[in-house]
């Protein structure tokens, strides 16, 4: 489902990936590594937020460089940062992202908003959210979108106990694991049915 072939990438002359290749199928992959090993950078490369210096990345045969728009419709990255659009409300942030993904289901998004108890903050500016609310906003969107590859950086950070339990249930769902390639980073054992673990 996700194919990385001979990827090369460096920061300011410091090589992070050299001839790096990886193929992932549906299921959950835990991306492990020390701070600075390149976990978040790899996710951003796969998400299209960073461009490889050389090499290819493809989802379901769609090349990230040759078909960038079609590629990005197949993938979603849930990281720690929100796009620098501080004038948007939470509702507008959702609307903006949902419009980018054909087939996005507002009912599915509403179900996630119910589960994470976010309906009460929809008309607030994104900048007013607490750390936990911010994380729940990102996860609500990530879990609702009809993408082939779902990337989640430190999914459990900032969540309360109830939200952690709900997120584990969603990620462990057999139907989701059968249709999505889910890649997550976590400094602690994610306690999920893993397809594999990759050490960087």
Explain what this protein looks like in three dimensions.
It contains seven helices and nine strands. With 200 residues, it is of the alpha/beta class. The mean pLDDT is 93. The protein is 32% helix and 26% strand. Keywords: ATP-binding, Cell membrane, Membrane, Nucleotide-binding.
Helix fraction by DSSP (H/I, runs of at least 4): 25-40%
Query: Cα distance, first to last residue?
Result: 20 Å
- Taken as a percent bin, the fraction of beta residues is 25-35%
Order of helical and strand elements: EEEHEEHEHHHEHHEE
CATH evolutionary superfamily: P-loop containing nucleotide triphosphate hydrolases
* Main sheet: strands, sense, barrel: 5 strands, parallel
Coarse morphology = globular
Uncertain runs: none
Strand order of the largest sheet: 6-7-8-3-9
Annotate the secondary structure layout.
Layout: E1 2-11, E2 14-24, E3 27-32, H1 39-47, E4 54-59, E5 62-63, H2 68-72, E6 75-78, H3 90-98, H4 106-115, H5 131-144, E7 149-153, H6 161-172, H7 174-179, E8 181-185, E9 196-199
Parallel strand pairs: 3-8, 3-9, 6-7, 7-8
Antiparallel strand pairs: 1-2, 1-4, 4-5
Domain ABC transporter: 2-198
Keywords: ATP-binding, Cell membrane, Membrane, Nucleotide-binding
Protein name: ATP-binding cassette domain-containing protein
